[in-house]
Amino acid sequence: MKLKHRHYLRDKDIKKLEEELRNILGKKFYMPSKIEFGIMKDDVHLYLVNGVPFFVRMVDLLIPTIKAIMNKAAQLPKVTVDMGAVGFVTNGADIMVPGIVSVDDNVDKFALVMVTDEKHDKPLAVGLALMDTKTIKNSKKGPAIKNLHYVGDAIWNFE
């Protein structure tokens, strides 16, 4: 997939992006000195480091990509799902409470989280928490995480 309007960001734009990420992630990210910007179809904005998507803006939400997490450029609270949920998560499904086997203690409602599998502890998705940690642990059913970006989607497959 090709990007429209692909270009490197100026230093002042990188500083704005860094400030926005600090507000979202705290100090749990690495900010590279050279970042490329491009727009995918559907008005999805990508921020690339060495040609790899590290951050993506969907509507007004800026999120780190799975590749950024794997490269230790960003850290998010973790929600772990059982192996039966993996296929659903990697097909874009939201994460339901019964599929969750563990959740970090610091997950707030509407916070960004990474979803991992219980066997390999590999990132599968980045999502938006629809419940906090306590509610997830005390619930028996319902959607807990809105799946925003997952292994196998257009952002993951971007080259």
Total helix count? 4
CATH superfamily caption of the largest domain: PUA domain
In percent terms, what proportion of residues is strand?
35-45%
Helix content: 10-25%
Biggest beta-sheet profile: 6 strands, mixed
Low-confidence stretches: none
Overall number of domains = 2
**Count of DSSP E strands?**
11
Rg result: 16 Å
Biggest sheet: strands side by side, in what order? 7-11-10-9-6-8
Outline:
The protein is an alpha+beta fold and 159 residues long. It has helices spanning 11-25, 66-70, 83-89, 133-138; strands at residues 4-8, 36-39, 45-49, 52-58, 61-64, 78-81, 95-96, 100-103, 112-117, 123-129, 143-150.
Q: What would your notes on this structure say?
A:
The structure is a single chain. With 159 residues, this protein is of the alpha+beta class. The protein has 4 helices and 11 strands. Strand 3 and strand 4 (52-58) form a beta hairpin. The relative contact order is 0.17. The model has no long low-confidence stretch (mean pLDDT 94).
Features:
159 residues; Nuclear Transport Factor 2, Chain: A; 5-stranded antiparallel beta sheet; 4 helices; alpha+beta; Archaeosine Trna-guanine Transglycosylase, Chain: A, domain 4; 6-stranded mixed beta sheet
Blueprint (SSEs and pairs):
Layout: E1 4-8, H1 11-25, E2 36-39, E3 45-49, E4 52-58, E5 61-64, H2 66-70, E6 78-81, H3 83-89, E7 95-96, E8 100-103, E9 112-117, E10 123-129, H4 133-138, E11 143-150
